[in-house]
Amino acid sequence: MKHTKKLSAVLLAAAFTAGTANAAEKLSIYHWFEYIPQELLNKFTDETGIEVTMDTFDSNEAMLASLKAGAMGSYDVAVPSDYMVKILLDSGMLQSFESSELSNFDNIDGPWKDPSFDPGRKHSVPYQWGTTSFAVNRDVYSGDINTTDMLFNPPAEVQGKINVLDSQGELILMAQLHLGLEQCSTNRDDVKKLDALLQESKQHWASFNSDGAKDVLVSGDAAVGQIFNGFSTKAREEGANVEYAFPKEGYVAWMDNVVLLKDAPNRASAIAFMDFMLEPENAAAVSNYAQYKAGVTGAEAFFEDTIKNSPELNAPDGSPDGTFIQACNQEAQALYDAVWTRLKK
Amino acid sequence: MSAPIAPLNAKKNPNAGVFDGIGLWLLSPSWIVIGVFLLLPVFMMLIFSFLTKEFRGGVIWEPTLAAYDQFLFDRGLFGDEPPTIEWTYITIFARSIWQAALATLFCLIIGFPTAYYIATRSARSRSVWLFLITIPYWVNLLIRTVSMKFLIRDTGPLNQFLMSTGVIDSPIHIVNTNFAVQLGLFYSYLPFMVLPIYAAVERYNFALSEAAWDLYADRWTTLRKILIPVVKPGIIAGCILVFVPSLGAFLAPDLLGGAKTFMIGSLIEEQFKGNAGNWPFGAAASMILLSMVLIVLMFYARQQTRAQAGAR
To answer: Which domains are seen in chain B, by residue range?
Structure first.
């Protein structure tokens, strides 16, 4: 599918630019899978005459590994999540721009103008934001689901029918929220408690699956599944009787961002794309496609009703705010890597 | 025109092939491909395994044995306990070897009779059978593994069929078990067992079996003492072709086994693509895996030499 998308983007871009006399400018995007509608890429090519090619990745870490293994210099923009923006920035893999270069810079929504992962928004612009918690099949379990006990101390009905994400960051943060621990803590008792909890809970889990997180809920293989809120919406729309939880202990919040990569071969095209994505109508087009919210002022006006009324996007009153994953230092990360390896031993 | 031809002809000895003299040049593309795309990356991994890890992926060019140390010694979760033997990775390797060995055994049990059956058909139906064996290979392994999951899941056709016929009352849990992983490996690699054994049996001179029969050997003795020794190279080749890819497989364990435990393949993948970002350790684990595979292949080579020596 990755190649089909890339190919169709190239073909369409070629079709649009065939008529123009000038040699076409290019833009190379490194993006998550299934995260941008093809029509929007066509619209960008239509408006700017810039040819778009796109490759996709399935996790922030996979993207980092690929960039480190030599893909730097071949992409103009990438779409990492919050903590990965910080990691890229600290590794010197991003380049800065001036807010004046983007005519739509002021469209960035208030809370997202000065995030901790990119102070002052000098290297990134918002793409979409959402939450990661879990969805529960209401045919199987009818009790209170707004607690992380559903994953770490599950009721009998769902034991052995739980899918968790095969992703260290999201699973460990949920466990830390369950125990009320600080992220990136190197306190020995904290790490031991976390390790013990994961070892104990694993017996109740059926699988570790990220790309299939939605499918296992739709097929009924899993009664509880850790999942991004937009995927939970899609599972519901595909007929699964699932409800998305906002646990009282907390849940994961994230924001994906378009970043300007260092050594971008087409810097001007990259700036044009970032500006394009800050248009409320375009940001809303992604929201309508992916079922997340955009960090762009005015995008709400273009949201479909499914988003305005979505139970996955609108936390009930009294729910805590989501927690962002922190990028740990080397010492702490080594501990959590060890915990993760022990979990899957 | 005729002048250059004469000396060439003069040099030629009667046994020389058409490609003599330029033979080396004709080989060069395959040597370049093997050198650049196979040996060079393996050599790079060998070097990486002895380098210092860079935080979040990459290597620092300072030699160290840290990766192999991590593989062999356990210093506790916080790295300050006296070193003991590290069982984590040995367990992961043992599990992978066990899975691969079982898959090989099942493939052999099913594959040998299948190959024998095909090889003893008429020439025309043989090609039809071989064609049928290769058909699944027109579809990508990922797709085949996912389809397998659809078939055996709790709400899938297999369970629905068994329930509708009244054989079982509630679905059998197959997905996310070791059995499912076995099934996936077995199904993925069965043709690799069938084809080499088929090639060996096809060349087998069935007059030998008749001779054994005439000398009052029963069927079992004929199979054991005549057929199996003769087609043994095919059996060993089949076993290697199934065992080696099963050892590094991660699609079947991830998709059908639920990725609850690491296999060698997923452990290595995690070091490069996952959160761990420990390239030297991933490289070291690859090198240990590679060494194990080479030992198996050397065992095979020795068997072959012995068989040839015995034939003389």
So the answer is: 87-311 (1.10.3720.10)
